[in-house]
Amino acid sequence: MELDNTKETNGTTPRKRENGLRLRPVLPDASGVGLPYAPVDWPKKGDVWTWKVGRRVAITGHFLDRYLYPPKRLHNLLNSGRKRGLASKLSVERYVQMAFPDADINAFFASFIWKIPAKKHSLTNVARAIFVAPSEELADLSVTEPQYDGLTCKAGNKKCNSLFAESESSSLVPLPCDLCCDEPHFCHDCCCILCSKTIDLNYGGYSYIKCEAMVDGCVCGHVAHLNCALRCYMAGTVGGSIGLDAEYYCRRCDAKTCLVPHVTRLLKTCESIDSPDDIEKILNIGVCILRGSQKTNARVLLNHIDSAITKLKCGTSLGDIWKVKEIDSAISAGVLHNGIEELEPSNHQDSLDSGPCLVSVLSISSDYQSEYQKLEYEIDQVLQALRKAQESEYKIAEERLDAQKNYLRNLYEQLDKEKSELSSRASGTEADALLNAILNRVDQIKQEVMKLKEMEEVANGFGRTPKGTLKKHFGLEIED
Ligand SMILES: [Zn+2]
Ligand SMILES: [Zn+2]
Ligand SMILES: [Zn+2]
Ligand SMILES: [Zn+2]
């Protein structure tokens, strides 16, 4: 569907008729009731919608931040996370379709103007508004970066999400932040809060997560690479005090975000990629996120990804990897539904939650071939791991036994030397002392030989060697 049915308005000629409505440029933070920027008498006569703009202005002369508020009587239909109103065309569309399934969405959007032009004198502020950085820094940036042309964000990123008006969450009011956001070249829209490097928007931005938690009416909006988050135990399933179950923990605002919808999107993205290597890389992130989760939809999804990876490894053609049995697609539809839909009435969700459990059981027997391939792959992995474990045990044993052997050889050599010294001195206090030393040496050798005998029990494998021996002689702590 064509979403953008308002025509582009040139910033230099803001006064222009559109849809028969007169466009009145407004100041930053302005708000208003009804036409031209919000619908009236919709859906019922007397219903008046309100609008509000933020401070940022796009290069086209329109406000980047633009909110639409439904009439008061419909407020209870808004999700609690959307107290600030609907911030993008997409969220308006979802809201309208959820609340009024029969409504003509095109007619709805045609009844008012979506893009709100900024007043002339606020246009002179365009660069500053978009750069956010103080003006000295602007000058600085253009000197240090010779290829600089056109708009970039504070981090010097031309592709930063904050520069695009239609990006849903970037048009919400950002959380004031004096941690990372005070740094001169840090942009919370495109710099990872864990490594400070910019995020990559390739393949639908699968590699990063944006925190969309609302804090005191502002959106957190900080982003992080998923790999960074996984490495820091801030994503996936993590025990302990953080306690995550297929979630992301934002270090900036302490909010947790469920990552199942992200992985669902990531899987969808893979269907349109034609590089097996890239697909595998993306799927592996999905696996790391979902592994160990107790959530039913996460486990079903993981099952799905595992089978896709197996097929990929077996050289299945890319088209066939995504072909799933009907029952599987029913599950994934359920997962997608639970995951992505935001404006769903909550009772609907409940009825879906109880469903997938049974369905996931059914799916295990429904696709025995892929299950079998999976088992094969799993066993292969186990055997490889066993071989590795045995190799490392062998190495440890070899090292320690050799060391003990060398130690004993030194002791024997020492004993020989002491004996020959004694034979050259027949009597006297010196001879007595030497004799004592020799007796001690013999005791020492006896003890070390006993130790070696204990160590030799590893011949049966570390698994059958007493734990005390492993700990004492091989430095291995084995837990029960
Ligand atoms: Zn920040
Ligand atoms: Zn940026
Ligand atoms: Zn990072
Ligand atoms: Zn956050």
From TrEMBL:
<dbReference type="Pfam" id="PF07227">
    <property type="entry name" value="PHD_Oberon"/>
</dbReference>
<feature type="coiled-coil region">
    <location>
        <begin position="372"/>
        <end position="455"/>
    </location>
</feature>
<dbReference type="GO" id="GO:0008270">
    <property type="term" value="F:zinc ion binding"/>
</dbReference>
<dbReference type="InterPro" id="IPR055508">
    <property type="entry name" value="DUF7081"/>
</dbReference>
<feature type="domain" description="DUF7081">
    <location>
        <begin position="25"/>
        <end position="118"/>
    </location>
</feature>
<protein>
    <submittedName>
        <fullName>Protein OBERON 2-like</fullName>
    </submittedName>
</protein>
<dbReference type="GO" id="GO:0005634">
    <property type="term" value="C:nucleus"/>
</dbReference>
<keyword id="KW-0479">Metal-binding</keyword>
<feature type="domain" description="Oberon-like PHD finger">
    <location>
        <begin position="156"/>
        <end position="288"/>
    </location>
</feature>
<keyword id="KW-0175">Coiled coil</keyword>
<dbReference type="Pfam" id="PF23299">
    <property type="entry name" value="DUF7081"/>
</dbReference>
<dbReference type="InterPro" id="IPR056034">
    <property type="entry name" value="DUF7615"/>
</dbReference>
<dbReference type="Pfam" id="PF24590">
    <property type="entry name" value="DUF7615"/>
</dbReference>
<keyword id="KW-0863">Zinc-finger</keyword>
<keyword id="KW-0539">Nucleus</keyword>
<dbReference type="InterPro" id="IPR032881">
    <property type="entry name" value="Oberon-like_PHD"/>
</dbReference>
<feature type="domain" description="DUF7615">
    <location>
        <begin position="368"/>
        <end position="473"/>
    </location>
</feature>
<keyword id="KW-0862">Zinc</keyword>
<feature type="region of interest" description="Disordered">
    <location>
        <begin position="1"/>
        <end position="21"/>
    </location>
</feature>
